[in-house]
Each structure stands twice: as structure tokens, then as C-alpha cells.
Amino acid sequence: MFEYLLEYPYLIYSLFSISIMTIFLGYALNLFYKLRHRSLLYFLGLVVCIWFDQLITTARNYIGFFTPNISPNLLYLINILIRFGTISTHIGVIFLFIFIESLEKENLPTKK
User: Fold this and answer.
1) Spatial contact of 89 and 49, defined as CB atoms under 8 Å apart
2) Which of 2, 8, 22, 96 is most exposed by smallest CB count within 10 Å?
3) Angle, in degrees to the nearest 10, between helices 38-66 and 9-35
């Protein structure tokens, strides 16, 4: 498996990006639980949607790569993953607009 990772760099990229997004998701969760502000809830929704899309992209890369003779059932699963990833991206954009609007209306509390 490690030989494939070295030959195909997009597999390394997908693992790297999902790990970075997981760290960023943990940071956003920590920030939300410390401050408990409504605009941070929208920001957390944005990060979760982006993380979910990245998770689906990683799963789709690995499913598509390690199964060269794709059965129709697995192709159906990949199509469902693609649709969930697209839906989560669109929901993330909606959360981004809500987050920007909530920042304009309210000020974030500052730490003392």
C-alpha cells in the first residue's frame, strides 16, 4: 500500500488534507465550546461541512483506486458519496454566508 502512496501523490494529498481538516475541526469545536457564541456555531457548521466533503473525497479516492474493476454496486456507492459531498459543499457555502452576516450584526466577545 505504501508503494501506491508514493506512486500516486493525490492519495497522499487526500490523507494530508483530511488530517489538516480534522485538526481545524477540533480547533473550531474548542473555540465554540469556550466562547459559546452564535456566529461561532455557524462557523462550526461551515467547518463540519468542509470536513465532511473532504472525508467523502478521500473515501472516494481510495475506493476508486483500490478497486480497478468496479462492480455496479460499488459504482452506485461512489455516486452516492459524490452527491453527499456536493450537498455538504453547498450547505457549507450557506453557513459561510450566515456566518458573515452574523459577524456584521454582532461583535464577538473578547477575552480579558
Assistant:
1) yes
2) 2
3) 160
3-state percent helix, strand, coil for the chain, nearest multiple of 5: 85, 0, 15
25: which residues sit within 8 A by CB, 6+ positions away? 47, 48, 51
- Encode burial over 75-111: b for 16+ CB neighbours within 10 A, e otherwise: eeebeebeeebeebbebbeebbebbeebeeeeeeeee
The CA-CA-CA angle for residues 55, 20, 3, to 5°, reads 75
Predicted confidence pLDDT, tens digits, the chain (112 residues): 667 667 778 888 888 989 999 999 999 999 889 888 878 888 999 999 999 989 988 888 888 777 777 777 888 888 888 888 889 989 999 998 888 888 776 665 665 5
Look at residues 99, 101, 105 and name the one whose alpha carbon lies nearest to residue 48.
99
In the chain, the amino acid numbered 49 is C
Q: Give the angle 96-99-100 at the CA atoms, nearest 5°.
A: 90
